[in-house]
Design a protein that fits this description.
The protein is mainly alpha-helical. The chain is about 70% helix and about 0% strand. The protein has 5 helices and no strands. It is globular.
């Protein structure tokens, strides 16, 4: 190690807070649009015990298998466009995963209120909690991965159960 080397603390940088603010505002706007245009996403539920483990397992499978399948499809020249579309959809779902989970967390935190909280308030509270959790020292990376896996699992379960049940609660 050089003598003048100092470990950088990301929390001391103005750029960190600027990027976090941009992520938060972007996620808030995208989340508001998402839950306004697809209100069924706002009704997903994680469940308890085995159901939440199942959701995490499905999310992990989506996280790992989709890019592998896309590469296999890309081997054929005819499959290149389909592979590209698959990867773009996967990256979009990866981005939306934490937003969907943030909405679920916000809804759960505000569930005890007598009045029904607005989408804006639910999303704001959930995004604050997720933003703090994924930026915790030492645990943030693991929580970020877990949030992504759970969000992907919630979205995948909603998609897989789209025609099988009239019950809006999925999980």
């Amino acid at each position: 190690k050089p003598q003048n080397f100092q470990a950088r603390n990301r929390f001391q940088s103005d750029r960190f807070y600027l990027w976090e603010l941009l992520w938060f505002v972007g996620a808030f706007v995208v989340g508001w649009l998402l839950f306004t245009l697809a209100p069924s996403l706002g009704r997903v539920a994680l469940g308890h015990g085995k159901e939440s483990v199942k959701t995490a397992g499905i999310g992990f499978l989506v996280l790992v298998t989709v890019p592998i399948v896309a590469v296999i499809i890309a081997i054929t020249v005819v499959g290149l466009p389909l592979s590209f579309i698959t990867i773009m959809a996967w990256l979009t779902a990866w981005y939306l995963a934490k937003i969907v989970l943030a909405h679920l967390i916000g809804r759960s935190v505000l569930a005890g209120r007598s009045d029904k909280p607005s989408l804006v308030f639910v999303l704001f509270i959930g995004l604050i909690i997720v933003s703090i959790a994924i930026n915790l020292p030492f645990l943030g990376g693991v929580l970020n991965l877990l949030a992504t896996i759970l969000g992907l699992g919630l979205m995948a379960q909603l998609w897989l159960n789209r025609g099988s049940s009239r019950d809006p609660e999925v999980g």
